[in-house]
Amino acid sequence: MKIAIIGYGKMGRTIEQIALQRGHEVVAKIDVNIENTDTFDSENFAKADVAIEFTTPKTAYDNFMQCFKHNMPVVAGTTGWLDKMNDVKKYCEGPNPQTFFYSSNYSLGVNIFAEINRQLARLMNRFDDYDVNMTETHHVHKLDAPSGTAISLAEGIISNLNRKNSWVLSPEQRPGAIQIASIRQYEVPGIHTIHYESEDDLIEITHSAKSRRGLALGAVLAAEYTVEHKGGFLEMKDLLGF
User: Fold this and answer.
1) 11 contacts 141 by C-beta, under 8 angstroms
2) Angle at Cα 182 formed by Cα 177 and Cα 184, nearest 5°?
């Protein structure tokens, strides 16, 4: 598989390492902060089977549009741009559907955790005494808050717990909303904790990332899946079979 990496920062470099270890080839690297990198119109980019995009919320959507212009399948790892998700999905429909794989978090462990989160929410429908909230902690360089993973986890709760209908960024309060506390600290790769608390006790489930490697591996696995399933909108549930 030939890969174009869009965003050659720490994540991009880790993705490159994992891709090479799995026998793939990185044929193009696009990064506005590095001189003499490839462009979307370059011959190297045209050689790629798929593009893996990890940049910033401000640049991600334009990068997707550039890929669609060249009919390049995209594995998107950037969060913070979800207000334009419906526009992206429209490009994945119609007579010439683009291929777009999105996850707020590519870690296999996080996606298993998300499935446990949904199952726990369904179980807690019977126990009204427990309120639910969330804490997410990331490194100080993360630009969006709450994290895309936290939003996805909150949506998983909302879809399965009848007494919750939205989320808010703590300390804001709203009836029926899940409070999400976002902490930016040191170089923490990512910690997400769901809290169910009553007057009598506390139930917590937590996922802690040890490094970026798990995210990079998941992104490369998603790219492998995308190349074999072109045309349409893809998610981790398609890859993992949840």
Assistant:
1) no
2) 175
Q: Which residues, at least 6 apart from 210, have a Cβ–Cβ distance to it below 8 Å? A: 189
Closest by alpha carbon to 2, among 13, 12, 11, 22?
22
The torsion of the CA quartet 77, 212, 24, 75, rounded to 10 degrees, works out to -10
Residue 75 in contact with residue 223, Cβ under 8 Å?
yes
Question: Which of the residues are catalytic?
Answer: 138, 142
Q: Give the sheet arrangement for strand 166-169, strand by strand.
A: 166-169, 177-184, 131-138, 191-197, 202-208
Q: Enumerate long-range contacts of 203-211, CB under 8 Å, 24 or more apart.
A: 203/120, 203/130, 205/113, 205/116, 205/117, 205/120, 207/107, 207/109, 207/110, 207/113, 209/107, 209/109, 209/110
6 DSSP β-pair partners: 30, 53
- pTM, two decimals, is 0.84
Average pLDDT, the chain: 95
CB neighbour class for 204 (10 Å; exposed up to 12, middle 13-18, buried from 19):
exposed
Q: How far apart are the first and last CA of the chain?
A: 25
Strands (E), the chain: 2-6, 25-30, 50-53, 74-76, 99-102, 131-138, 166-169, 177-184, 191-197, 202-208, 232-234
Residues facing residue 204 across a β-bridge: 195
Instruction: Kindly report, residue by residue over 93-109, the tens digit of the pLDDT.
Output: 978 899 999 998 899 99
State pLDDT tens for residues 37-96.
899 999 999 999 999 999 999 999 999 999 999 999 999 999 889 899 999 999 999 788
